[in-house]
Task: structure prediction
Amino acid sequence: MPLLAIETSCDDTCAAVLDGPRVLSNVISSQSEHERYGGVVPEVASRHHLELAVPVVDAALADAGVTFGDLDSVAVTAGPGLIGALLVGLSTAKAIAAPRRLPLLPTNHLQGHVAANFLEPDPLEPPFLCLIASGGHTILAGVRDHQSFEILGETLDDAAGEAIDKAARMLGLGFPGGPELERLAASGDPEAFSFPVAMSRDPGLGFSFSGLKTALVYICRDLGEDGTAERAADLAAGFQAAVVGQLVSKVGRALDAEAWPAVALGGGVAANGPLREAVSSLCEERGIPFKEVSRELCTDNAAMIGSAARFVDPLVFPDYLSFDAFATGPRGGR
Ligand SMILES: Nc1ncnc2c1ncn2[C@@H]1O[C@H](COP(=O)(O)OP(=O)(O)OP(=O)(O)O)[C@@H](O)[C@H]1O
Ligand SMILES: [Mg+2]
Result:
């Protein structure tokens, strides 16, 4: 029986229909209006979710060839994320589930990024090591079951995606900056400028990206506006290489510390080609399988929420009517 999943934690309005680990539809409507502000404006995001939620759910049902009457449960992102944005998705899910007396499956967004790896084709079974690198988080996750993960290390300051978006903005690129920075970097020389390799002497599994961002600010200041525009490709390549270098070195360190049987990625930054190639090479060197999840399952989507929801304890009607979303909070998956 199909499950409907809804994800509205940031600026993408997403709905998906799943049959177990099989994705029957996965609809994502990204809000382009944030581009002119150079970042997501929470109130604008919430209002757009209100407009988009119903058409996106309708599209997901139509793509899957099912109706509301066919559903057996409704999953929804409960947090972490922008609270107003989350509440639109949660209210939509309750409004669909309650009249039909369907169970509600409140799901953790970060567990969703991990659970993208549980989907067909080629589902990965725990235990495995997962690098979650997204707009709001950078976490080395020890995944030992389907419900949760252990935080082995995380960023001490900015998230990798946040740093990439800020760098892209300094280089005059649009928002979100990741895909554009990757495109520009492809024609640049990653060694033309020297960027600090942060945390390289730190024996732990933490990350830091704020120093890298500051290094770019100073280089751009020295180059001036025209010089920065002229050397933008080299700057993008150097910055991207420094981010990827740090992420991969910490994956290597986590593999030194514990014999994980497989490595996976999750979160929007995991869509980055050079990162995927670098982690894949590292795994090949170590003789460990690397699970390459598709790029569209890395950035925010509802299929990953439906995947995680399969392992969530259901809430029954009417208990969930007063269930609340959370902006920050449990990050270990539960
Ligand atoms: N090809 C890419 N290369 C590098 N970064 C990318 C790429 N594609 C997307 N990103 C980055 O991924 C981030 C968005 O990821 P995601 O949608 O998972 O974040 P989020 O949901 O806002 O944050 P979180 O998951 O932490 O709550 C953005 O910072 C974006 O620039
Ligand atoms: Mg996300």
User: Anything to note?
Assistant: The first helix runs from residue 42 to 64. The mean pLDDT is 95.
